[in-house]
Amino acid sequence: MIQDEESYRYKGVPLTAAVVEYIAKSQLAGQQLKRSQIVDYVEKYHAQHGGFPCQAADLSRTVKKALDNLKANKDAENPSTGWWRISRGVEGEQSGESKDDVAHAGEVDEEETQAFQPLLLLGEGDETIYLYYYPAYKAAAHSISQDKWLCKIGRTDSSARLRISCQSTGMPERPEIGLVYRTNDSRTLESVLHGVLTLRNQWSESSPGVEWFITSAEDVLSIIEFVLGHPVIAEAHA
Asked: pTM above the 0.70 mark?
């Protein structure tokens, strides 16, 4: 049985390596998974049960640190590069959660995030660059025959949909994900995109933070293709 929010010991606490260790031991015991799958799972599980986001810049490294700690304590094994097996210990047995429960939890989350499907999905890698906006911004731009509007461009080491969902909680409308680009160096690409758009005077000074620009998915895709030196084949979603 999956732990409910009220009984979760790390409710209201940021996601740290210690929290990752607890989730891995209590929820993933006996399973062999890719590190990227563990990153996605612990981030979703922690958020769904009232936990706060990881404050570290790179969640993937936080998870790696937790897995290394588990391995040192013989609570996890690293049978091959990128793959981890969590030992079945006391906490995992006490949780009462089976492999089927973990799989079901993932299925429920997929159903909840169907509305967050990107319009353009492209690239390959374990990290992600994402662009999203609110439909009202796009509609206002189109009403005056403009093809660019206020968009946020960010990066994440795990699920772009979950990251955007968390960022948009409490907003009057659901954001639309215009573009998701998978890569193995999201930091460099994000810096390039922000730099080019800023040089073009497309950065929105009036918006909070430094990630909002007057742009579009097509505009950003054209920059990515220019940087790479070749066209990128995108998978479009209706």
From this structure: no
